[in-house]
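Protocol step 4 of 5: obtain the predicted structure for the target chain.
Materials: sequence only (see below). No template structures provided, no constraints applied. The aim of this step is simply to have a reference model before the mutagenesis design in step 5. Sequence pasted as it appears in the construct record:
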Amino acid sequence: MYIKKIIPLLFCWFSITSCVGDLDFTQIEDYTASQEITNSLIYFTLSSDQFFDESGVLQHVKVDVTDFEGFQDDYIKDNIIEATFYVEIKNEFDTDFSIQFDFLDESNNITYSLNKFEIVSNQLDYKYEENIIINNQPNIKNTTQIRTTIRMNSPTALLNSNDTDELEFKSASKIYVETGD
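Step 4 output (structure tokens):
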């Protein structure tokens, strides 16, 4: 019985004499929050017939411009600290390609360019990753469009419009946003 009485007394005594410290409300000023946002950027598949114009003439260069709204949001534009771009390419053709990936502002000026991708014939697993520190390249935040230029490296390359070969291009980005101090 004695133990049953002493345990509550000890509990009360520890509760009353426990450590108490002052709260530091200024800690919130040093708080930073960070998050990662992953987006798909550009995806396309080109078959051999898409390299021919309406009259059947082989086009050695294909250009596509796509709107990009990733930096239009003020929260992201003001707090982005880093961006990583990922590219995967599958080339089933018997010809080499160069692919240039340019970020453009609303006046079509280049704000940033990824390194040119040199894709050899029948390369089915090309992967590329590029990291950008935004403080070193602040102009990229003005991007409103992405231009993709695909060029056959051989001007004498012959394609058959009936072939089933394809060039597949996938890209994504991961942006790192940080708020606070």
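Step 4 remarks: The first strand starts at residue 32 and ends at 47. The helical segments are 2-16, 74-79.
Proceed to step 5.
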